[in-house]
Design goal:
Layout: E1 2-3, H1 7-18, E2 28-29, H2 32-42, E3 46-50, H3 58-64, E4 72-77, H4 81-89, E5 94-96, H5 101-116, H6 118-138, E6 146-151, E7 154-159, E8 163-169, E9 172-177, E10 182-186, H7 189-194, E11 201-205, E12 208-211, E13 215-221, E14 225-230, E15 235-238, H8 240-250
Parallel strand pairs: 1-2, 1-3, 3-4, 4-5
Antiparallel strand pairs: 6-7, 8-9, 8-12, 9-10, 11-12, 13-14, 14-15
Length: 253
Amino acid sequence: MIADDERPARLFLAAMLRGFSDVAVVGEADNGAEAIQLIEREKPDVALLDVQMPEVDGLSVVRLLRRRSLPLVIFVTAYDEHAVTAFEMNAVDYLTKPVAESRLREALRRTREHLERQEARESAVAHLVKAVSSVERATPVPRLDRIPVRQKQDIVLIPVQQISSIVAEGELLHLTTSRREQYTITYGLTHLEARLDPGRFIRLGRGVLVNVDDIDRVTPLPGGLYTVTLRNGEQLDVSRIQSRLIRRRLLQL
């Protein structure tokens, strides 16, 4: 299957693939959310995912798919040399735009080798997940306006301004909105923080981010510590180090 939000690029890839006698195109998607539904419904051997798609990009598709539904992935990318290196280091194939037919054929040959050996396929899927993390670290990314969250069969897009708090628990992040709606994603807090507006979100501790605009009051505790109460009623403790930042940023005129 193919996922690309640019119709000419998607049609170009589809036309090339249909020219290969040993390839069947089972579907096309013009956004990441549709790609997830298509992959889980059609269960393709291989997915060609554009890295840069609005809202749910190619990397997010991999993160949001259930592990058992992950096909082998060939990323289609216009990313710079650093990101390409991250793909290469983690044994995930990629195509750079404009895609050359010979390069596409070579990428398909490599994925076919993985498909023919179950052990190689499982290794490729594991490397794929690792590669997504590596690329996100290596590549400057734009600020997030919405966070895609998997909820049963749907992808919910949560506007960042509606998020009151983000609390880390192991590899999970628990998001709570201003209306006390709760969502959970698998993502690194540091990586997510790098994609959020630093003027909007502030750390309360090693595993907690809050929306500054949603802070209702700050309560002093013994020892120079604080508890923050958000407008949705959440109460969160502030670490000793971050208490100094809270004091400078919020409590001084």
